[in-house]
Specification:
about 160 residues; globular; mainly alpha
Length: about 160
């Protein structure tokens, strides 16, 4: 059985950014088109292209919203529940990794040419980001499945 965390890691090790990898890993269980997911997640890579919020975190929060979010006058309860699941995700991720911020997690600013080159040369995307992608996908899967929003353990 394929698992979303392993799939996210494979996608990230391929040509997708951290957000895209997490989001794409959930396409099958959520019925989301892969092209749509890849396009949606593009701008969230490298900490929203600014070293800010970790792209894997952004992808996981997008997944939690797709699983049970809502809005407008009839979606207030779904929105509140999604906020609670996102806060739970943030708390667990910080407990495990110390931050939600890309440049803090990888220890440099990947949005500068020097930082990007150094991160690549030192293998930080593989040694640091790959486990973050895997963990963000697994955590989102566990939270969504625990809330009954994914079948089983999410694939």
């Amino acid at each position: 059985m394929s698992d979303v965390a392993a799939r996210a890691a494979r996608l990230f090790a391929g040509s997708y950014n951290c957000c895209q990898a997490v989001l794409l890993a959930f396409c099958v269980p959520l019925g989301l088109g892969e092209e749509t997911a890849a396009r949606l997640g593009t701008g969230f890579g490298l900490g929203m292209a600014r070293g800010g919020a970790c792209g894997a975190v952004s992808g996981a929060v997008l997944v939690l919203g797709l699983c049970g979010g809502g809005g407008g006058p009839t979606g207030a309860a779904a929105k509140a529940a999604t906020y609670a699941r996102a806060r739970f995700f943030y708390d667990r991720f910080i407990e495990r990794h110390g931050s939600l911020v890309c440049r803090d997690l990888i220890g440099l600013d990947p949005t500068t040419p020097e930082g990007l080159e150094r991160a690549g040369r030192e293998g930080r995307f593989h040694s640091i980001c790959l486990p973050l992608v895997r963990d963000a996908a697994a955590l989102a899967r566990d939270i969504a499945a625990g809330a009954g929003l994914l079948p089983g353990r999410g694939g």
